[in-house]
Amino acid sequence: MLNSTHPVRRLLPTFGLLAVAMLLGRPVSAQTLTFDGLGCNLIPVAAPYIEAGFSISAGPTAAVGEELFQNCSGVNNPGIGVNFFADIGTLTRVGGGAFSISSIDLFNAFGETANVMFTGILNGGGSVMTTAGVTASLTTFLFGAGWDNLVSLQWDQNENASVVDNIHLSTSSQETVPEPATMTLLASGLMGIAATRRRKKRAA
What we know:
alpha+beta
């Protein structure tokens, strides 16, 4: 048991502040999936498609090699679509890990009006859902609060030829769940701060 004059006991508040800084100071990296390397023809794209550390796959019913296709909205503005026999597209980080999404561009390759349902699978369990309308014109859909700390994003196009483009994502360079050592350090620091306050009150 450390007494109040022990040098380590005196440093506990400092350790606590350091742990808070470690938890709050994680660098965030932003990426945009532009699909600029794809063409504008309705031809298959090898699945999974990989860009900027993210993977896009599709399923479950399309033939192997025909799960994804490329198409353009306007002049040389390529995006990627899910074969309407597959229906469901899935976005994940290569190697796993959590991410956030802020917006996505959508258009329909056949000029139809339709809805696309998005489902975000949360790190640690649970999900969030929303629906976006799609037309022949490129439209930006904004995701609201709660679309962070995802481990995957799925979209169900309900048998329409919707295409996604310019997916704005962000990731943290560290895991979203604090390491046990950091949490121990934080708890020790908070205990030290509380002990320091009690000593000051008694001295007063």
